[in-house]
Design a protein that fits this description.
16 helices; 4-stranded mixed beta sheet; 11% strand; alpha/beta
Length: 416
Amino acid sequence: MTTSFDSNPKGRDHTDPLPGDLPVTDTAPDGATGTEGPAPTRRATLAELLDTLNERPVPFRFSAYDGSRTGPDDAPIGLHLATTRGLSYLLTAPGSLGLSRAYVAGDLEVTGVHPGDPYDLLVTLADGLSLRRPDPSTLARLARSVGVTRFLPPEPPAQEAVPDWRRALHGLRHSRSRDASAIQHHYDVSNRFYELVLGESMAYTCACYPDQGATLEEAQEHKHDLVARKLGLRPGLRLLDIGCGWGGMVRHAAREYGVRALGVTLSRQQAEWAQQAIDREGLADRAEVRHLDYRAVPEGDFDVISSIGLTEHIGVRNYPAYFGFLRDKLRPGGRLLNHCITRPDNRHPARVRRGFIDRYVFPDGEITGSGRIISAMQNAGFEVRHTENLREHYARTLMEWCANLVAAWDDCVTEV
């Protein structure tokens, strides 16, 4: 937005802010006559800055370390900016990354939601926080109000994944060494933590609910069986499950369909947990999980391959090599089921380098639309026979995981 200034606008007192201006007040020292020169300008408060920069009335209670506040007093959601460091996070990484840094560091305090289930907060921010790009004059006033040192980026919280240039120490993006580092960052937290959040199934993937009354465990069992039926599993077939997690699909296939199943994962903790579960269930004669990169699997001529939640870690540029590798691991006429998170379009960048997901969830992860994935599969020689969207099921799965996290919050915090 551009604001024009007039030295003496008609019908307007010079102390009234123009639309889009930061609130200012002209003052003069006691006893001054007004002839000594320009009066100093009062710094805007943080609440005033938020009101000025947001395109609509702030829908949540906001308060800051400078004592200012704005928003409805009876709003169910409240945010308190507690430190100058938190302000620097917000200014130097506008959007989800800055908010995440301030929150994780304890500089942005939230009331009205449980930390294990902040969905209502996210909806409130998405619907009510729409910051306009300040024009040069407004930006200058903002800098004077908060101080130029607030625009110096603080060190990110220790929980944040390092930026690209430091990740390069582990190799090029999606090299075997760097993929292993990225997977360990996300998954090798604590098996007990995931037991508390994911439940008995230990399935870190979208469940599929057969009906409204189904539990999370029933829905995960139904999901595994949906995969099995799409692959046409039957006794004696050989299954390769890449990115197998804690081995849920491997065990289901071996137990319910008599399949000889091999699962591989880059997470050592996942592999150890999965192999122990296989041994407990007496499936060791036909099921195995290895701590291994899928690209290092020596066997071939599999009847079926399942890839559940791995494609997000492959990298879009690597799709031709990825699907070509899987094609070569299958016998002629074999089947592949590829399940992953997708975007609703094929135009959005697959990876947002300074985004929340890249720094706090899936380092180096890339998500694109289903059309791009299908094209890559077809170009690699696959005949795509069926696609299915489980978006609504994933939303419910996330609700169940959040409920588990809330119920076991103290134990989960202790684990991580």
